[in-house]
Design brief:
The chain is built from 15 helices and 20 strands. With 486 residues, the protein is of the alpha/beta class.
Amino acid sequence: MPSLSQLQFSTKLLIDGELFEGEGRTETIYAPATGEVISQVREASTEQVNHAIAAAKRAYYSWSRTTPQQRSTVLLEIANLIENHAPNLARIEALNCGKPLHQALNDDLTAAVDVFRFFAGAVRCQYGQLSAEYIPGYTSMVRRDALGVVASIAPWNYPLMMAAWKIAPALAAGNTLVFKPSEHTPLSILELATHLDSILPKGCLNVVSGGGENVGSLLARHRDVRMISLTGDIVTGQKVLKDAVDSLKRTHLELGGKAPVIVCNDADIDLVVEGVTKYGYYNAGQDCTAACRIYAQAGIHDRLVEELGNAVSKLKFAQCQDSDNDLGPLISLRQRDRVASFVERALTEAHIQRVTGATIPSGSGYFYQPTLLAGCLQHDEIVQREVFGPVVTVTRFDEIPQALAWANDTEYGLASSVWTRDLDKAMHFATHLEYGCTWINSHFMLASEMPHGGLKRSGHGKELSSDSLQDYSVVRHIMARHALIN
């Protein structure tokens, strides 16, 4: 983990092109890997949030009238800025989130750069309906225009990457933003904000830190905010929806998941073990798409449990050499204790078997041992609820209809995967699984070109892809009357 002496970072907010110390309450920022205090960040006051929204509203008039080519150029400059500052930003990210530095640099920062570059291209390649005369003497055409001021609220598991997911499409579509990072992990985006004044016009992007009950709620209620975009849990999503009701603003919500991993008898077990070991425990399981809920067919169940247990038990964490770590700690002591309580309750059930893990290791930091639980049943809490930690469950199934019914029997609908050598079987599952994404013989693979978003209580709206540009814009019909010439 990087030391504080290696880092340079800002704690100031970006409002109307200028940097300000927050005027609200002070939030203590901890290093999850050690529990030490990194910094103190003051959240934005009500007046500062209002100032940021007003600045975004003023900037919208000119920014929304720029051409796609002009906006594309700015996004490319932001991508280059992130790439040039990637080593320092990755160190801040690793310290603030606890994740291994090599993952922050090679995965998170690389993805953030790619997202800005993708939307720089995508905004120049939009297409729409043909213009035509649907009524004699009238020509109709369709425009797609920006919405106005967008308020975006990001989570703590991928701070800078989630910032890219929200900022890039909103700016590309011609909107201006007020962006709120998680109060637990504001440091990387606050540092990036110090370099944006030479690229973005004043007010186009404002960054205000603070808690959801103060800053987040104010953003969701404010009448000058036309859209609120949130990545978080269901409870937070419900609060945002309630706050957004009075002004009838658009909402864009990604609210978690409980991804089923269906492993059929004919699956390549080595491939399954490799995939789940990596993507069930990546980022300490703090991922809405984590491969956390395995349904294993009876014929391969015992072998899968044994081989997966052996692989998971070898995952490295809390190593002195950061590059040796496969995963980091949980984001906070509260989150670590929440994960531990899920496992403790599960193990009070006689039918649930601890294959490996299920302990809080000694030493500093908010680590939890990578855990695999077998013998879990469909109705168990550990199967139904999102744990958001390094915990994977295994449930045995006999026939395909049973696995399909169990996989869909949840309030979540974000991501899923099916593992089989039979393409017909795989496509049957993919057709009937009620999830925004279904991977076949893989899990967790994301591409900027492809949409990411959920069904059911996992929310609505899409991140990434050209579909995201549509979410951040509105269709308008223009009809021109003209003389009929025979």
